[in-house]
Amino acid sequence: MKQVQVTAVGENSFVDVDQPQVGRQDVLIKIKANGICGSDTFYTSIGGIPPRQGHTPLGHEAAGIVADIGSDVDDVSIGDHVVINPMAAEDGIIGNGGVQGALSDYVNLINAKANRNFRIIPKNIPW
Ligand SMILES: [Zn+2]
Q: How remote is the CA of residue 72 from the centroid of ligand 1, in Å?
């Protein structure tokens, strides 16, 4: 899948990365919308965030559709529309120095719980 990363000072690139796979308690989100934050422009200006300078995934203002769920997940369904909480990710803050960024085709929410890692939103809200 494609992921936007800060790849050098003042440079963002589309990078090919492996699509994340859901674990038993994970929720995989197909990203449909993502805001560009002032933090993103700052991270780009400094070449990314340690320890991922030169390969910092961007994107932390995201919404999408649940594409897959782990076998132990029971509080959301495939096809639900959700807003992601980037702060509650176990692999680092999404798009703020974590392993994942939401300017990607997919984000995998590890050990996800509704109203902690994401919030379900009405399907009639346009992207
Ligand atoms: Zn932001």
A: 31
90 token code pair: 């176990």
Architecture of the structural domain at 2-121: Alpha-Beta Complex (3.90)
Q: Residue 78 is encoded by which pair of tokens? A: 């495939």
Query: If you measure from the C-alpha of residue 60 to the centroid of ligand 1, how many angstroms do you get, rounded to a whole number?
Result: 6
Do residues 45 and 7 make contact, with C-beta atoms less than 8 angstroms apart?
no
Q: What is the mean pLDDT of the chain?
A: 96
79 CA distance to ligand 1 centroid (A)?
A: 26
pLDDT higher than 90, residue 50 = no
pLDDT tens, residue by residue, 61-74: 999 999 999 999 99
